[in-house]
Amino acid sequence: MNKLEVGTSYFDSRDVEHVARDLDRMVSEGLTFVVHTFSEHDAEFYFETVKKIVQMSHERGLKVYLDPWGVGKIFGGEPYSKLVMTHVMGRQMTYDEKLLPAMCPNSPEFLEYMEEWISMAAETGADYIFWDEPHFHKDGCYCDYCILKYDDTIGGSIFEAKESVRKEFYEDSLVELLEKLVRIAYRKGLKNALCLLPHGDEKYWEKFYKIEELDIIGTDPYWRGRSDEEFRGYFREYTERVVRLGKKFNKEPQIWIQAFDVKSGEEWKITYAIKEALDIGIRNFASWSFKGTPNMSRIRSDNPELVWKTYIEAFK
Predict the structure, then answer these.
(1) Predicted structure pTM score
(2) Is the bond leading into 289 cis (omega within 30 degrees of zero)?
(3) Which of 124, 119, 5 is nearest to 62 (CA)?
(4) Contact 87, 100 (CB under 8 A)
(5) CA dist., res. 287 & res. 34, Å (int)
(6) Treating both helix axes as pointing N-terminal to C-terminal, what angle do 16-28 and 47-59 enclose, rounded to 10 degrees?
(7) Phi, psi at residue 285, to the nearest 5°?
């Protein structure tokens, strides 16, 4: 059996003394890596502190991923985006020209910001960038950048395109953006990990797997909002997919385990998911988030310590 990699996301504190205690606990409980969130707010106001936190993590033997948490609202995460507020022309837009609260993956403003963000991430000394859940708004985008790019690459009006053609255009735009970002990070000495949202057909996923500079590709098939029966099938389907495609394209598969908003009595699902994933072939696990998410009250688990204990003990 390959060595297990076990980690967690972390966004609890920027107080380095507090962080030190949490990192010590991670190590004592057998974790091998930590995913530190690095939001726009962090980049602007806590950069030197994040550098120190990365250093502290390395001193304890932990590998470090940095997550562009909620950056531009293109990547997953709760933080608000200053970029969205200050770069109106780069925002996504509805069919009827209403601005959406997210940057457009096709906007040069977003790419310019991300180049700066990657440079800062590299300066921290982190090992990986964790590209979390890149996505368009659910209704797509009809901003000027998308209109022009659609006409240049496919031809015609995006407003008159068939839904299936528009959908593929948005998918290809995300792949193109991620490919650019991953290669920038790679050239700066960083490794790259990607978490894909657990939906979309396999043909679409394969476009990401063909990005040579991606090292790890995973997904997060959480049970939230699903019945027990639905969750079992859903979890197996997407876990098998990352293992199968990982073998085909030589990428390390990773599975994220829900450790937020876990209702009392649901803790068994953590053990179930880990054992199921181990059986399927996963050897790289992460939880969202540390200690069962005790402090972000909107998504706090009912019994955070039990959630965390269950996560740790499932690997023993």
Answers:
(1) 0.97
(2) yes
(3) 5
(4) no
(5) 10
(6) 30
(7) -125, 150
